Amino acid sequence: MMSYEINKETEKQLFFHNYTRLPLAITHGEGTYLFSADGSRYLDMISGIGVNALGYGDKRIINAIAEQAQKIIHASNLFMLEPQFKLAEKLLEISGLSKIFFANSGTEAVEAAIKLSRKWAAQSDNAGRKEIVSLSNCFHGRTYGAMSLTDKPKYLEGYDPLLPGTANVSFNDINDLEATVSDKTAAVFVEFVQGEGGVHKVSPEFTDALKTLRQKHGFLLVADEIQAGCGRTGNFFSYMPFDIEPDLVCLAKPLGGGLPLSAVIGSQKVEDVFAAGNHGTTFGGNPVACAAGLALINAIYEDNLMEKAVETGEWIGEALETLAAKHSQIQDIRQYGLMIGATVNRDASYYVQEALKRKVLLNATNGNVVRLLPPLTINREDAQHCIDCLDEIFSEEAEN
Hints:
Strand order of the largest sheet: 4-12-11-10-7-5-6
Helix content: 25-40%
Distance between the termini: 48 Å
Number of domains: 2
Radius of gyration: 21 Å
Largest sheet: 7 strands, mixed
CATH topology of the largest domain: Aspartate Aminotransferase, domain 2
Order of helices and strands: HEEEHHHEHEHHEHEEEHEEEHHEEHEEEH
């Protein structure tokens, strides 16, 4: 076995070149901070790309994992497992929906929802109802079905042919929606707040049109809550402020408290579509991940983290607006709870690298958007530290 050091050169030797990793060897985390091998401390405004909702080292998550791991780590879905039952009951209570399927990742949840949608359509009296529709600028995952719904050329190049029977509607374009959906539409997938697309929210008018067209054509509505769910926007699900109920909800990222876990939650309309053997997973609903997921959800409610996401998010949004008035590099601010995007006038990766020099971890998405996805537990002092860092970067940039 080859010896190795954790650095960029060894990374090139060991791995496919999928990731543009930051030059940090992370050893551990504490609260809202990550620590590198050289002892440096970094304020984490990414939280594992929205996964670590409670930050790092929350004892409730750690204890739930340890307690369940001592009982059984894996058994498969051949058996009934108590942590699955408890988490399923909690998610159905929160959503008001009917049935649940556990998987491992967001893209797997989307794949399951695609399959369920087409299976549902095949059981209807409309043999032509096969089309799956998504919105422009969306991101639903990396597997073939999920990727086929994703309207991002950089993720699609070289992978043709994609899944047939898919279509895109321009984001918040009611006319395009009306022209695209029909009696041939099986399902429409919607991120009510787009994350990878730059933190954009579906308009109430578009949602009303979607609701009317669903009544007319009878398609399923699938809410992709993979990044926006579990309280990040100030509601447990980002669709909740709208007067609409999805037929399917895809949930992942923070759900497992840092462990791989996702879910598809379905309404009564689809509760009998899947029969034994129609779909499955070896690891989905792992008992340790489910135990961590239950601890996560309980903590969100116990600590009033959705309310705190609203309060802290609004404070960060206002602070960014103040920066925008001072610095012309900032073009637009979008803030929904602790899901925050700032459009800038250059490639946002520049600000990621500059913040890294100041030991603050930011994220760039959609080319020119600085995205903030801090833990829901972030306090005002740490939020101010992030704002001060950005202020310094913008000021130095203007001087040079």
